[in-house]
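Quick start: read one record
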Amino acid sequence: MSAHQHRQQQPGHGHGHAHGHGQVPAADLDWDALAAHLEQEAELRAEAVTGAGHWLSGLAGDGGVRRVLDVGAGPGVIAGLLADVFPAAEVVAVDQSAALLERARTRSGGRLGTQQADLPAEFDKLGEADLIWSGNAIHHLGDQQAALTALAGRLRPGGLLAVAESGLPPRFLPRDFGLGRPGFQARLDAAHEDGFATMRAELPGATEEIEDWPAMLRRAGLAPSGTRTFLVDRPAPLERPVRAYLRTQLARRHDQLAEVLDPEDRATLEALIDEDAPTGILHRPDAFYLSAMTVHTARRA
């Protein structure tokens, strides 16, 4: 995910990335903390992304991928995973943030190419590719259909566009985990979806769209080539880095949603982000992480 998206979307979102109502100026971002969080997020999904990459390799056919773009790449974790799947291809991480792209270059040892571009205004800077990956980035752009159409125009004949959108929000605690009323996560997700709708409405050039991704890809001039969902499954007890990631996400949700939650749910959320209490997500033995990433693909004729 790009820094541009993070400025549009502080704080956290239930689909494994952040959303919010306001914009955070670049000068106010803690770039090291942001990069570390994005890396944790991408590493959490690494197995699912690698599985998706192998599926895409099969769709592309032998020798069919010479250049790959990861659009909204952030610090380049997923671009690195795609480079593992397509070792003969030039893999380019695309983002607005020079700081995050430098992080991508460093962590990849120079294996990745990088392209700084302000999306969607500079789609035309990207050049052509045989495979374009866009993970949870399109919904941060006001006109999603126009963004897909622009990306479709970057594909070489026979090239694939892979859009990781929708899927399922994470679950990380039982329905009844001993704090507050059962069903806390479902209510938190509902409050978050209202915030997500507000975020979408406030984007520059916001356009309402029925999010039927295969149909949108078809309207972009592509032929849908399949949709698959990949599971992210980390059972209890969780490793410390995953717990730390969840605490950061929950703290962001608290910043965003505290005023709209009822007092009991707000108290539950505060107990979960308490770093010292045994009720906190950092210490709970029942914490797990389960989510699903759905990838929609389409081919240029």
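The two ends are 28 Å apart (CA to CA).
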